[in-house]
């Protein structure tokens, strides 16, 4: 499989930091979400398209490894890379200092398809995922 990635830039805002002026650990998931949406748009399967296709994609697993803290006003690059898509969507993330390239955080999320009408778990990704990825990989 060819690699499909997307990155977003984030400046750590004041309301994301704690008393020590570092980003509160829970906000890293939000930064992952920003990059995940950019990645999903790369193959035209962002959340509105998921819903329109009749599937929900809850996150069933989230893993983070904090390496160094992000600080107030620090400029970050958050990259999301598609790892798996056949039976689930697994996305890897890296958060780096935009200026130095130093890695601050890494992790991954796993999402599974659920039929929106029946709420039944799907053990294979819907055909639309495969079609959209085929188009994205051929560009």
Could you explain the architecture of this structure?
- This protein is α+β, with helices and mostly antiparallel strands and 139 residues long.
- It is 24% helix and 34% strand.
- The strands form two sheets. Strands 1-4-5-6-3 form a five-stranded antiparallel beta sheet, with helices on one face. A two-stranded antiparallel ribbon has the order 2-7.
Q: In short, what is this structure?
A:
Helices cover about 25% and strands about 35% of the residues. It is α+β, with helices and mostly antiparallel strands.
Chart the SSEs and their pairings.
Blueprint: E1 5-11, H1 27-42, H2 47-52, E2 55-56, E3 59-66, E4 75-84, E5 89-97, E6 103-111, E7 114-115, H3 127-138
Antiparallel strand pairs: 1-4, 2-7, 3-6, 4-5, 5-6
Q: Please tell me the overall pLDDT.
A: 96
Terminal Cα separation, in Å?
Answer: 14 Å
Radius of gyration, rounded? 16 Å
Globally, the shape reads elongated
Structural class: alpha+beta
Largest sheet properties: 5 strands, antiparallel
Helix-strand sequence = EHHEEEEEEH
Task: Please state how the strands of the largest beta sheet are arranged side by side.
Answer: 1-4-5-6-3
β-strand number: 7
The residue ranges in which pLDDT falls below 50 over 5 or more consecutive positions are none
- Fraction of residues in β-strands: 25-35%
The level of helicity is 10-25%
Q: How many helices?
A: 3
Question: Which descriptors apply to this entry?
Answer:
139 residues, alpha+beta, five-stranded antiparallel β-sheet, two-stranded antiparallel sheet, 7 strands, 34% strand, elongated
